[in-house]
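ok so I'm stuck.
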Amino acid sequence: MELFKDKVSITDKITLGGDRMVLFAGPCAAESYDICMETGTELKKICQELDIDYVFKASYDKANRTSSGSYRGPSMDMGLEILAMVRNDLKVPVVTDVHESGQCEEVAAVVDVLQIPAFLCRQTDLLVAAAKTGKPVKVKKGQFMAPEDMRYALDKVRGEGNNNVFLTERGSSFGYHNLVVDIRSLPIMRQYAPVVFDVTHSIQRPGGLGGKSGGDRQFAPYLAKAAAAAGVDGFFIETHPQPEKALSDGPNMVPLAEMRGFVEKIIDFWRLQKLN
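replied:
not stuck anymore, here's the structure
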C-alpha cells in the first residue's frame, strides 16, 4: 500500500503529514471566551512542552444536534468573535466547522482551517465553497462512508485548485446509537491524504441519551493509542475544564486536567511508529 507523500500546510509554520504531530483540540462549542481561553492556554502550554504543533478547535454553531432543544452555540456572530479573540490572544491557528456554503467566506476571514462535518462530507456545494476560500479544508469521514470513497470528497476540493485538504476518521455507524472504529480505514485513507484521528467523536453514542448523544470516555485512550500506532498524522480531541457541565458533548470530552497525560501516551506510540 503506497501512502500519500505530500504535506498539507496548516499555516506557514505548521504542516500535516511530516515529522511533527499536530493536535487539534478545544471545547466542543465556543461556549464563552473564558472557557475557550482557559482551555486553549493550557493546551498550548502542553503542546509547547511536548514539542508538538497545536491548532485550537471550537464550534460557533452545532447545527447537527439530535434535538432542537439542545445547545447549538453562542450564535454565528458572537461565536466568530470569540474565535477571533482566541486566535489573536493565544497566537495559535484555529479550526471550526462550516455547515452551509454561504458561511465559508465569512468564517474563512476569521479562522485558519475550515472543517466539513461528517454528515456533510458529500455536500458538493459546501466542499467547493470551502475550497474556494483558499484555506486548508479538514473533511471528516461520514459515519456512513467507506474509507476508500473519501477520495471523491478530496477530488471536489482539489478540483478547485486547493490542495491543502486532509481527512479525519471519527468512527462508523454500528447499529443504532453506536459507533465502531475500523483501524483499516486509517491506512486506506492515508493513501489519498494526511489523516487525523478524531478521538472523542469516535467514542460517541449518537442519540444514546434520549434526545442527545452520550459517549464512552473510558475507551478514548485505547482508540487513540491504536490510531497512533497505525500511523495517523494528528489527533482531534475535544476537552473541557468541567465536561460534566459542558453545554455540548460532555460525555465524550477528556477533562482538561487529564489532557497532558493523555497526549503523552499518544506521543509515545506515534513516535514509535515513525521509526518503522
